[in-house]
Write a structure and sequence with these properties.
Layout (H helix, E strand, L loop, with lengths): L3 H19 L1 H6 L10 H4 L19 H12 L15 H14 L10 H7 L2
């Protein structure tokens, strides 16, 4: 199995270097290029909607959900056609489950608890 931290560090360094060559604004708005390649905004500590780790589940709304959606998008997982809308509906639920399965070592339950928050922000 590959070392996720080493891969992440390599990807983060590449993204940061690319961002420095095109300017910070261009790097921060670049679309994610696939699973495992987070955008610069996620690399620098999250998306800014929420910084806690409270259990976030289907049916929730608000800033916690917007943070989950933004982080999922930064990892390359679609949260549906509305994007970051603060509504934890079926598209976000499916994206959380997909991320949990892809990331590995997480319970695939569609709930964003402490361990999934940690993984999303890693």
């Amino acid at each position: 199995m590959f070392n996720r931290r080493k891969l992440f560090s390599t990807v983060a360094a590449t993204v940061l270097a690319a961002g420095l060559s095109v300017g910070a604004a261009g790097a921060a708005t670049a679309a994610p290029s696939g699973h495992g390649q987070p955008s610069v905004s996620a690399v620098v500590g999250g998306c800014g909607y929420y910084s806690g780790n409270a259990l976030t589940v289907k049916g929730n709304t608000g800033n916690r959900v917007s943070e989950v959606q933004c982080l999922l998008l930064s990892w390359g997982f679609s949260v549906g056609p509305d994007g970051v809308d603060g509504d934890f509906g079926p598209n976000t639920y499916n994206a959380v489950r997909a991320f949990q399965g892809w990331y590995g070592g997480l319970v695939i339950d569609g709930k964003v608890g402490v361990n999934t928050w940690r993984a999303l922000r890693s």
